[in-house]
Design a protein that fits this description.
Helix content is 59%, strand content 0%. The protein is built from 7 helices and no strands. It is globular.
Length: 94
Protein backbone atom coordinates (compact mmCIF):
# COMPACT_ATOMS: atom_id res chain seq x y z
CA UNK A 1 0.00 0.00 0.00
CA UNK A 2 1.19 3.47 -0.83
CA UNK A 3 -0.79 6.09 1.02
CA UNK A 4 0.97 8.83 -0.93
CA UNK A 5 0.06 7.23 -4.28
CA UNK A 6 -3.56 6.82 -3.20
CA UNK A 7 -3.83 10.45 -2.14
CA UNK A 8 -1.96 11.65 -5.22
CA UNK A 9 -4.24 9.67 -7.55
CA UNK A 10 -7.25 11.44 -6.03
CA UNK A 11 -5.54 14.84 -5.89
CA UNK A 12 -4.67 14.61 -9.58
CA UNK A 13 -8.37 14.24 -10.43
CA UNK A 14 -8.68 17.95 -9.69
CA UNK A 15 -6.83 18.63 -12.96
CA UNK A 16 -9.45 18.78 -15.77
CA UNK A 17 -7.13 17.00 -18.22
CA UNK A 18 -6.45 14.11 -15.84
CA UNK A 19 -10.12 13.98 -14.83
CA UNK A 20 -11.09 13.57 -18.49
CA UNK A 21 -8.54 10.76 -18.84
CA UNK A 22 -10.01 9.09 -15.72
CA UNK A 23 -13.57 9.36 -17.01
CA UNK A 24 -12.59 7.91 -20.39
CA UNK A 25 -11.03 4.84 -18.81
CA UNK A 26 -11.25 4.54 -15.04
CA UNK A 27 -9.62 1.11 -14.92
CA UNK A 28 -6.75 2.29 -17.12
CA UNK A 29 -6.27 5.35 -14.89
CA UNK A 30 -5.94 3.38 -11.66
CA UNK A 31 -3.82 0.72 -13.34
CA UNK A 32 -1.49 3.51 -14.46
CA UNK A 33 -0.77 4.51 -10.85
CA UNK A 34 1.96 1.93 -10.32
CA UNK A 35 2.21 2.19 -6.54
CA UNK A 36 -1.47 1.44 -5.86
CA UNK A 37 -2.27 -2.04 -4.64
CA UNK A 38 -5.41 -3.93 -5.66
CA UNK A 39 -7.33 -2.82 -2.55
CA UNK A 40 -6.60 0.85 -3.23
CA UNK A 41 -7.53 0.52 -6.91
CA UNK A 42 -10.80 -1.12 -5.89
CA UNK A 43 -11.59 1.69 -3.41
CA UNK A 44 -11.23 4.25 -6.20
CA UNK A 45 -13.14 2.21 -8.79
CA UNK A 46 -15.94 1.40 -6.33
CA UNK A 47 -16.06 5.02 -5.09
CA UNK A 48 -15.68 3.52 -1.62
CA UNK A 49 -15.94 6.71 0.41
CA UNK A 50 -15.98 4.94 3.76
CA UNK A 51 -13.01 2.76 2.83
CA UNK A 52 -10.99 5.74 1.64
CA UNK A 53 -11.79 7.60 4.85
CA UNK A 54 -10.89 4.57 6.95
CA UNK A 55 -7.57 4.37 5.05
CA UNK A 56 -6.84 7.92 6.22
CA UNK A 57 -7.45 9.81 2.99
CA UNK A 58 -8.32 13.46 3.73
CA UNK A 59 -11.97 14.28 3.12
CA UNK A 60 -11.15 17.04 0.63
CA UNK A 61 -9.55 14.40 -1.63
CA UNK A 62 -12.48 12.03 -1.14
CA UNK A 63 -14.83 14.87 -2.10
CA UNK A 64 -13.04 15.29 -5.43
CA UNK A 65 -13.79 11.67 -6.37
CA UNK A 66 -17.31 11.88 -4.98
CA UNK A 67 -18.19 15.05 -6.88
CA UNK A 68 -16.97 13.59 -10.17
CA UNK A 69 -19.54 10.83 -9.70
CA UNK A 70 -22.38 13.04 -8.46
CA UNK A 71 -22.13 12.01 -4.81
CA UNK A 72 -23.19 15.00 -2.73
CA UNK A 73 -21.51 16.54 0.27
CA UNK A 74 -24.14 15.08 2.61
CA UNK A 75 -23.42 11.51 1.47
CA UNK A 76 -19.68 12.06 1.87
CA UNK A 77 -20.28 13.34 5.40
CA UNK A 78 -22.40 10.36 6.36
CA UNK A 79 -19.95 7.88 4.84
CA UNK A 80 -17.07 9.45 6.75
CA UNK A 81 -18.87 9.32 10.07
CA UNK A 82 -20.65 12.64 9.98
CA UNK A 83 -24.30 13.32 10.59
CA UNK A 84 -26.93 13.81 7.95
CA UNK A 85 -27.89 17.44 7.40
CA UNK A 86 -31.12 18.01 5.52
CA UNK A 87 -30.91 20.09 2.38
CA UNK A 88 -27.15 20.00 1.76
CA UNK A 89 -25.96 18.80 -1.60
CA UNK A 90 -23.25 19.65 -4.07
CA UNK A 91 -23.32 19.12 -7.83
CA UNK A 92 -20.97 17.23 -10.07
CA UNK A 93 -17.57 18.45 -11.23
CA UNK A 94 -17.60 18.57 -15.00
Amino acid sequence: MSFYALCRALYDLGDPRIRAEYLQGREDYVRGVASLDDRERKMILDIDIGGLHHAGVPVYLIRTLALIHGVGFEEVGVATGGKRVAGISVGRIQ
